């Protein structure tokens, strides 16, 4: 059975991009009779925004995207907050240290900054001089016993020799990524000095431990794919399949941002948009163009029904599930045109008014959006 996850960080409200990621996870899981998990990636306490988990959950509920496992729901894959899974990350860090794939670094942040600046002045794209890689085992043990703070880094040098099966990264939507390893930072940090994992370690450990079969996430994580695949290889684990979803753009080609209008799902809830129209709009913006670079064939069902709907085809959530085809998503950046949302919204409303049940649902939605917009009334 396929198992997916939507893994937002609780750093603020859910944006359209996050909703689109959750939606595609939902469509793919439901299409293949699988499930999806809501996992909260809260390992960066400095960026934590109180209330954001509730905000994410209520936006998903409003949109009708019900997760199978996650906060507030029992299930076999918890805990669902990464801050409650630290022992797991520590045990994987230990494995990587013991196998020599990772090492402790005791450099202070001042020293790291000055090393980085020095290296940059020489025109190098190396960001760390690997000074701590040459510490002897005894020296490391002595410094740990003395309570000196350290971080843990992946030893990237020589991975090609050490990992006979080092993979060339490939993505269901973006295809084969040539020379992707070249852009990796020098010996990326896996465990921070506060003993919290970085995103990279936590996400590969959780995807493995939770039994995730497919990772659908934003394009901004594509450069991290080689590192994630290296981590799986170092740990001798098989990775899930990856599909990165292209960045969303305004009609003028600029990146969506708060300054340019509504990007938070809450804005759309407050304004009383039809959730199904919003999902319809988001889903079709990246839909159905057969990408030329050839995605990796995956376990999806037959690709025979591939007459791509046009981006204003009226589709309910169950129709979207029915017609969803992951490898056919475009790798080009997706333009979200507000005029198309208006059109879809009007037609979804008209469709729902054709039934009594639809009128009741709509009346409830209007009263809910009044409550969201004016919470004190
Ligand atoms: N926590 C990451 C984010 O909020 C998710 C990355 C992932 O899905 O692996 O962008």
From TrEMBL:
One Gene Ontology biological process: glutamyl-tRNA aminoacylation
UniProt key word Ion transport: no
Entry's EC annotation: 6.1.1.17
SUPFAM superfamilies in the record: Nucleotidylyl transferase
Matching Gene3D superfamilies: HUPs
Stretches assigned to the Glutamyl/glutaminyl-tRNA synthetase class Ib catalytic domain: 2-293
UniProt-recorded Gene Ontology molecular function terms: ATP binding; glutamate-tRNA ligase activity; zinc ion binding
Protein keywords: Aminoacyl-tRNA synthetase, ATP-binding, Ligase, Nucleotide-binding, Protein biosynthesis
GO cellular component, one term: mitochondrion
Pfam families: tRNA-synt_1c
Major place of residence: mitochondrion
Localization per Swiss-Prot or TrEMBL: Mitochondrion
Family: Belongs to the class-I aminoacyl-tRNA synthetase family. Glutamate--tRNA ligase type 1 subfamily.
PANTHER family linked: GLUTAMATE--TRNA LIGASE, GLUTAMATE--TRNA LIGASE, MITOCHONDRIAL-RELATED
Protein name: Glutamate--tRNA ligase, mitochondrial
